[in-house]
Amino acid sequence: MRLKAIVTALLALSLSAGLKAQEILEAPGPYVPLGADITDVSALIAEGGYAEALDTLGLMMTADSPEDALWYYSGVCKLDLGRFGEAVADFERAIELDPSNSSYYEQLYSAYNYIGDAPSRKSADSLCVVMAERFPSKYRTPYILTMMGDNALGTRQDSLALRYYDEALAQDEEYAPALIGKAEAFRLMGNNVGYFSSIEKFARLDNIPATPKSNYLGKYLEIVDGPTYRIWHKQIDGIVDACAQTHPKDSSALVLAGRWFYSTGQKEKGIGYFRQWRDANPGNFNAESLCISLIMQEGTDKEVIAACDNALKRFGDPKAQVQLLCIKADCLYKTGRKWKAFRTYEKALKIDPDDLMTLNNYAYFLSLEKRDLRKAEKMSRKTVEGAPENVSYLDTYGYILYLMKRPAEAKPYFKKAIMYGGKEDEAVLRHYALVLEALGEKDLARYYRSLYESKSGK
Fold this sequence. Notes:
Layout: H1 2-24, H2 38-46, H3 50-60, H4 68-80, H5 84-97, H6 102-115, H7 118-134, H8 136-139, H9 142-154, H10 158-171, H11 176-189, H12 192-203, H13 210-223, H14 226-246, H15 251-263, H16 267-280, H17 285-298, H18 301-314, H19 318-334, H20 338-351, H21 356-369, H22 373-386, H23 391-403, H24 407-419, H25 426-438, H26 442-456
Helix pairs in contact: 2-3, 2-4, 3-4, 4-5, 5-6, 6-7, 7-9, 9-10, 9-11, 10-11, 11-12, 12-14, 13-14, 13-15, 14-15, 15-16, 16-17, 17-18, 18-19, 19-20, 19-21, 21-22, 21-23, 22-23, 23-24, 23-25, 24-25, 25-26
């Protein structure tokens, strides 16, 4: 009985002590790990406990804590928790306290990239330069050296920029950004020999896709003026050839070469590259239609018809079929096979009754024959409703109305055609003069007829 009484008394004492503690403490206080230090934080981070680690850090540091490691670990936690802006501030504070720790810079670089907006990307690039300068053995890579070259070039320190680019290329002679940077430095310095040498190396790199090469070369070719081409045409042509030869099946490289040589008077060579593009991409209708358009400019109508017939066998897409049939019909009419031309237009319209180009061309050639004008008017009306700013369609419809003895109705369409550029079109000027004469507006008719005669050389 005595032992039971003692146990009862001890239990009552402990309960009483608990009640007194609850009366004293209004709410439980924060848990403070006994002897918590940076190793505990590091262990929590290693286990993925970023939120818990951040809470522990909050108990260990103040707003002006002088320990760089605390700021670093705080930034690591916030980076993982998606609080990127706060992480940047913590890493910057860690670097301020200890500029010699390369890990701090790496994490700050990551934080900038996670934010990802333009100012942050710019800050990341600037940080790379700082890292390369402070830790040359670790970060003086081709990427960062090229960035340093770009920064020097941006401040017109051309010679310094070249040294950085050369250092990058010494590590990787095929590093394309450094080659481009070096070329640009030469260009800005007026050193064309150096520029063309660097760009040709870039054009011949087979580890770089054709599209970025073609985009760069295309922008350069746009600014080449006559005097530059006369002096350096062999070098420029060589660079374009180099790109196309390195990528003999790529559309961007072959089209760039075709356009360049065709536009500089080397038509056969240009056409050759376009054909190479077509032959390397037999299912590409854009390549086929471009080659047909070149035949239209350089060849005969019979050659165009043959090319269309060949393509019609290989391209079954309805849009492709309609386009080819319309081109073929145009050439048939020009070669005097008018009825076959009209049947070919009909064939195209069976595939697509609303194709505006076919409707316009068919209607126009009917108007030239002065046949089936009601049918021509109906077809032509659909074109001006579908494309009310198309000068050719407006001219066709206005001319058909004139032929149908409705010049007053035709006049507004010609006024629109003139407004949208018809003053440069001989047919528009001649037809409008006819309409104005029919309306008795002789002075205005003479004006447009004189414009037509001046443009046509009559």
